[in-house]
Specification:
Blueprint (H helix, E strand, L loop, with lengths): L3 H11 L7 H7 L11 E4 L9 H16 L3 E4 L13 H11 L6 E2 L20 H13 L3 E4 L3 H14 L17 H9 L5 E4 L8 E6 L3 E6 L6 E3 L7 H11 L4 E5 L6 H11 L5 E5 L2 E4 L6 E3 L10 H7 L3 H12 L3 H7 L20 E2 L2 H12 L4 H15 L1 H7 L3 H12 L13 H8 L16 H14 L6 H14 L6 H6 L8 H13 L7 H8 L1 H12 L2
Parallel strand pairs: 1-2, 2-3, 9-10, 11-13
Antiparallel strand pairs: 4-5, 5-8, 6-7, 11-12
């Protein structure tokens, strides 16, 4: 072991450029002035360009915990792995979560806003000066040391450990640079040899820590005995080291993260203690699982196998953010569903969300249940809410078509009243997302990609349409219009009276319903639609005649 003086000399050799002390950073980022119950949470993704349902799942929990009692929810970007960094990834994260009405109070992406950057910078690559101050302090206290072991040497150690069937890693007698003399460290540094900085672990093999998880309760875990890397060869910190310092200085009080991080708790537990920090509360969430039809069991949602893992899947199709929130809250908190049934009109933000009620086991993602929730929740939205949601979605994902769809607000609202029943007592409950709505009503705007065939043939269809146009008067009400359809039926040998047709179908070519179907298919392209008279009057006489004449001239 080095003496106190030697540790300080080694720290100066390693970090000659570091002038700011850890006390400086503690004063620069004081504890936040928040209420007693207020929590500070964060989302801290890597900028890989892929944001998924699990991110939204955790972000919703973070946002609810922070905002329930006036706390702070911030965005930090953990970009220390340059190989995984994707340009534009931060904007993608912010925009994807904003689509689902999840907003950050501060953090990456806020430009020069001083208030929303008070605890920044929020990119880890811009915080290297801070990490080096704490690294230097650890060396000064004999809690970290430089390691010059080469990749070849480390591989040989691993092979030996595997051969002897012992725990792999850099620890104990395998930590060959742990207890070198000051002269040996000095000589290696002066030679210019590449090195990393390692933690001098204080853990003992066979001992355990008791860690309290906010979801799982008390968990017994082995102490960390590994001399983990704190700074890589280029001076950039590892995730473990950076996140401990960042969570402390940004004054994070609750960390919600995936269950796969539970195995790293012994490392983080030791880091917080050697750095002299109070640990935030940790909550390790259950994995989002999916029923696997091949095996009959459950498995984790997969980026490769499951397109529904990506948030783009939901954004591009236009799932309403409220519907997604309702569904995810049913997975996040066990008593949400009952609360929502009892308070269907209540703001979701009023739900008493708690970490303690989060699922301890795997949360099963069920697309059928999500779709049922979407159908129900969409049917509860007001006319203006439906209109504004569809407009916002279309302007982002179908900007050219949106100009046509939303050119006449009253026309589109009339269509929505007809197709979705908005404003009516009985609402349609089979629509799931925005794209589906526009596929349904696209024919009003010239989208005739689908066209059903008239069952009695093209020539018969043309006879009916020609006679229909001769009698059509846009001023007719629904009753007068239908009576003219009956007259067309009588003239062309179809039954205008359905009772007569059912009694003797062989006496007629068909019935008045066939007359209506010919008009319906020529105007809409579909054999099944809501009220045809209403469709024609929303569409307008000019467009209706264009459609029918196109069939007649074909």
């Amino acid at each position: 072991m080095l003496t106190e003086i030697e540790n300080k000399k080694l720290a100066e050799l390693l970090f000659p450029e570091v002038e700011k002390t850890t006390e400086y950073w503690e004063e620069k980022f004081p504890y936040r002035k928040l209420g007693k119950k207020a929590e500070v949470t964060r989302m801290a993704p890597s900028p890989t360009g892929f944001i998924h349902l699990g991110n939204l799942y955790s972000a919703l929990a973070d946002e609810r915990i922070a905002h329930r009692h006036g706390g702070v929810f911030y965005l930090r970007i953990e970009d220390t792995d340059a190989k995984r960094k994707v340009d534009g990834a931060v904007d993608l994260i912010i925009n994807a979560l904003r689509y689902f009405n999840i907003e950050f109070d501060e953090g990456a992406g806020f430009g020069d806003d001083a208030e929303q950057n008070a605890y920044g910078p929020y990119y880890q690559t811009e915080r290297v000066e801070i990490y080096h101050s704490y690294a230097k302090s650890l060396v000064e206290r004999g809690l970290a040391y430089p390691c010059f072991a080469t990749e070849e040497e480390l591989s040989k150690v691993r092979e030996e450990q595997e051969e002897n069937k012992v725990l792999t890693g850099y620890y104990g007698k395998y930590a060959t640079w742990r207890d070198k003399t000051f002269a040996e460290y000095e000589e290696a540094l002066k030679s210019g040899a590449e090195h990393v900085l390692r933690l001098r672990s204080q853990g003992e093999e066979g001992k355990e820590i008791t860690f309290h998880d906010e979801i799982k309760g008390d968990v017994q875990l082995p102490e960390n005995i590994h001399d983990i890397v704190l700074l890589k060869k280029d001076g950039i910190p590892t995730y473990h080291f950076a996140h401990a310092i960042d969570d402390h200085l940004m004054r994070t009080t609750v960390v919600i993260r995936g269950g796969e991080w539970l195995a790293s708790v012994p490392i983080h537990y030791e880091l917080f203690h050697v750095l002299g920090f109070k640990m935030p509360k940790y909550a390790h969430t259950a994995h989002l699982m999916k029923f696997d039809e091949e095996t009959g069991g459950k498995r984790k949602l997969s980026k490769r196998k499951d397109p529904e893992l990506s948030l783009d899947f939901y954004r591009k199709d236009g799932y309403h953010p409220h519907c997604m929130k309702v569904y995810l809250l049913t997975l996040l908190n066990s008593h949400f569903e009952e609360w929502h049934e009892q308070h269907p009109d209540e703001d979701l933000n009023n739900f008493p969300f708690s970490v303690e009620n989060m699922s301890k086991s795997g949360a099963l993602f069920d697309k059928d249940k999500l779709h049922n929730i979407c159908k129900n929740e969409l049917s509860r939205l007001s006319e203006d809410e439906v209109y504004e949601f569809l407009k916002t979605w279309a302007e982002e994902f179908e900007p050219e078509k949106a100009k046509l769809w939303f050119a006449d607000e009253e026309k589109l609202k009339s269509i929505l009243r007809l197709y979705m029943g908005v404003g009516a007592k009985r609402r349609r409950k089979d629509l799931i997302f925005a794209k589906q709505v526009f596929e349904l009503i696209g024919y009003f705007f010239g989208d005739e990609s689908e066209k059903d065939e008239f069952k009695l043939g093209t020539e018969e269809e043309k006879k009916i349409l020609a006679e229909y146009l001769n009698t059509f008067d846009y001023a007719d009400d629904n009753s007068a219009w239908f009576n003219k359809l009956k007259a067309v039926a009588d003239k062309l040998g179809y039954a205008s009276d359905m009772k007569a047709y059912k009694a003797n179908p062989e006496d007629f070519k068909g019935s008045v319903s066939d007359i209506a179907e010919a008009v319906r298919i020529s105007v809409t392209g579909r054999a099944n639609t809501p009220d045809l008279w209403t469709i024609i009057h929303i569409m307008g006489e000019e467009q209706m005649r264009e459609r029918i004449n196109a069939v007649l001239n074909a």
